[in-house]
Amino acid sequence: MTTSLILNVIGPDRPGLVNAIADRATAAGANWLESRLANLAGQFAGIVHLQVPDEHTEALTQALHALQTHGLQISVTPAQSAAADPGARALQLDLVGQDHPGIVKEISHVLFTRGISIDELATECVEGSMSGGTLFRATARLHVPASVSTDALREVLESLADDLMVDVELDSPPGA
């Protein structure tokens, strides 16, 4: 049997951090299934999904926690199976507009109140080539319950986009 583990990792960025985690995972016979890792404001931050033989779970956890002496904080959490949601579908939300506080809060609130889960969210601020200001960009992969109409969701998001002065697109994700 195997155990799925989720690692949350953060620490000052430097070469070799991914290698240090991968070395310990491989030594425990773990399989690296998926990850999202990034340098955010000088900090190495990420989340990793590993699958490890049950008998090596504790040894791997201890080996990963030993990396804390190198300034890397790692929390290890057993993964939970997601409940099946028949009829749910994936949608992709793309947003771009002048950066200002509150964009993520307002969009996430609309999604939350409709029971929509954000499976993945990527955001960034970039310099606008035409406007000269800072643009905020977001891409989210959404898990939308069958009870929520795509057209109704698009309508409420477009109304909110007008209030926030951003452009919003809601479509099926690429490859779907």
CATH topology of the largest domain: Alpha-Beta Plaits
| Count of helical regions | 4
Share in helix: 25-40%
N-C termini distance: 32 Å
CATH top level assignment of the largest domain: Alpha Beta
Rounded Rg: 20 Å
Q: Could you name the CATH homologous superfamily of the largest domain?
A: ACT domain
- Low-confidence segments, given as residue ranges, are none
The overall pLDDT average reads 94
Topology order in helix (H) and strand (E) letters:
EHEEHEEHEEHE
Beta-strand residue percentage: 35-45%
By DSSP, the count of extended strands is 8
What coarse outline follows from CA principal-axis ratios? flat
In this structure, how is the largest beta sheet organized? 4 strands, antiparallel
Spatial order of the strands in the main sheet?
2-3-1-4
Structural class: alpha+beta
Total count of domains: 2
> Architecture of the largest domain, CATH level 2?
2-Layer Sandwich
